[in-house]
Amino acid sequence: MFYKDERLALFIDGSNLYASAKALGFDIDYKLLRQEFMRRGKLVRAFYYTALLENDEYSPIRPLVDWLHYNGFSMVTKPAKEYTDSMGRRKVKGNMDIELAVDAMELAPRVDHIVLFSGDGDFRPLIASLQRQGVRVSVVSTIRSQPPMISDELRRQADNFIELEELRDVIGRPPRDVPSEPRTPPAETD
User: What is the pTM of this model?
Assistant: First the structure.
């Protein structure tokens, strides 16, 4: 459902895509991901959204963020908030939904097709708005994990659902023994 002459933009919810790929048992090769979508259309921009723990001396996600920044991705980051829940567990919160939605709305007049890498149902109104502006929206996530990583409402709203598992051979690399993302839980999303 891609056309060679259409202008594409990728919007990657970093923690959501990481959790989806991890649930399927593979890591994303972002160079291959970018190449795949450049092949499918005229890639205007590839955004990657993630929250960073600024107070840690070393963040395991920092090398990925730096690599993406130097290799053609537009990085959108903000400091994550760390807190302790009622059970005494350390939690990290860094929701990037608003930043992603604002950027998608701003870019909508300049693209034909947006690919959203997230299963977060909070994006359903964003997709509906983009569609009213004439932009086609594909969503990349998975229903093959337990539980599924995409909300049913988001999947129904999208013009096209791309099963992440079916992209494994194109954009995946085998998981490494050393985690490429922080060991702290991914930022909470709804």
Answer: 0.86
Task: Write the CB contacts of 50 (distance below 8 Å, at least 6 apart in sequence).
Answer: 14, 15, 61, 65, 75, 76, 77, 94, 96, 187
pLDDT tens digits for 69-124? 999 999 999 988 888 888 888 777 788 999 999 999 999 999 999 999 999 999 99
Domain residue limits, the chain: 7-81+92-171
Residues 6+ apart with CB under 8 A from 119: 16, 20, 139, 141, 142, 148, 149, 150, 151, 154, 155
CATH 3.40.50.1010 for the 7-81+92-171 domain, yes or no: yes
Torsion of CA 65, 99, 163, 142, to 10 degrees: 90
Q: Which of 87, 98, 60 minimizes the C-alpha distance to 189?
A: 98
CA distances from residue 168 to 28, 56, 131, 156 in whole angstroms, order as listed? 8, 32, 28, 23
pLDDT in tens, 164-185: 999 999 999 865 655 555 444 4
